[in-house]
Specification:
5-stranded mixed beta sheet, 12 helices, 38% helix
């Protein structure tokens, strides 16, 4: 059984490291997704020409917002009132400027390197069932190097949150993990996508065993990682691998395991599900924010659930101010 989690109370910053990307979101039907030649619901790496072609074909005008899994999570932490920092790399272009300004407007300390390549983009097709299929051009984000993770990157970090997509950059993720561990921060890993887990399972097993304190997965990712489709067996298997384990099961809520105890978190919010983009990322925002504030697992889970619910009621991963106000009532009331 993993040892209990102990936060360093002298530290209060949540640091995210991941791909600095801009989300381009469009609504389309399943037929349009089939035309891409990729399966529905996953994440696929493509070139910039593919994205341009899809944007030209999709009906309507896309919505453009800052994105990237870890970035979404860290922006959420900043919006909740937590101390937040994001490490990434973007281009010296209009999208890069948009990305940096959004971090600052969300009370996030930007540790951004720049590249001659254009800022990375994710074209997301949202189908009528609110499922998203993602097509990613990493661009400048792919050029983030291990040597650019400076000694001050994780200064005062209570938690370092890493997105699973960095598993495709072995040297970078290992440097981030070792640096965070040396600096005494807890390490949070979001598995990001079942396709990531499928492609990197052997490396993932090693990383989780040696470094990860907080492991976050949805049911598809957990099934590939643990081999269990039953949610109870899946959370039990995850809990054997990390000190805190999270299993998100969509509209059924979530499970959190800590110190051998499994807590079921009921879903919050009854609004219509418009788009699931960022739902898991914002869930992590609420959970990590609550954890660094010293709240109980149940309260952390309720904040997380509220964040996930609110973001599903808008297009993209940007919760409006009135949504944040509703979320904050959970611990302020």
């Amino acid at each position: 059984m993993p040892a209990p989690v102990r936060l360093n109370k002298a530290r209060d910053v949540i640091v995210g490291i991941g791909n600095a990307l801009v989300d381009i979101l469009s609504h389309a039907d399943d037929v349009f997704v089939e035309k891409t030649g990729f399966g529905k619901g996953g994440m696929n790496y493509v070139d910039t020409d593919f994205i341009d072609k899809m944007i030209a074909m999709v009906p309507g005008t896309p919505v453009v917002v800052p994105g990237g899994s870890a970035c979404n999570t860290i922006i959420g932490v900043g919006k909740l009132g937590g101390k937040a920092r994001f490490i990434g790399k973007c281009g010296q272009d209009t999208l890069g400027d948009l990305f940096s300004k959004e971090l600052q407007n969300s009370h996030v300390d930007p540790f951004l390197m720049t590249s001659a390549l254009s800022t990375g983009r994710v074209f997301s097709i949202v189908t009528p069932d609110a499922q998203r299929s993602m097509f990613t051009y990493l661009g400048a984000a792919s050029e983030l190097r291990p040597g650019e993770i400076a000694g001050c990157s994780f200064l005062d970090a209570a938690v370092v949150h890493i997105e699973g997509y960095l598993l495709f950059n072995n040297d970078l993720i290992m440097k981030a993990l070792s640096r965070a561990k040396e600096d005494g921060a807890l390490i949070s890993l979001d598995l990001a996508s079942y396709t990531v887990v499928e492609s990197s399972k052997m490396l993932l097993e090693t990383i989780v065993t040696e470094y990860v304190d907080i492991l976050i997965a949805n049911e598809d990712e957990a099934a590939v990682f643990t081999g269990h489709f039953d949610e109870r067996k899946a959370i039990e298997a995850l809990s054997e691998r990390a000190r805190i384990a999270v299993l998100k099961v969509g509209e059924r809520g979530s499970y959190v395991a800590q110190d051998g105890e499994i807590v079921k978190i009921d879903p919050l919010g009854k609004g219509p599900v418009i788009d699931t983009t960022g739902a898991g990322d914002l869930w992590a925002s609420g959970f990590l924010f609550g954890l660094t504030r010293g709240y109980s697992v149940e309260t952390c889970g309720r904040i997380a659930s509220a964040c996930g619910s609110e973001v599903c009621q808008v297009v993209g991963a940007t919760i409006p101010d009135e949504g944040w106000a509703r979320i904050k009532r959970i611990w302020e009331d």
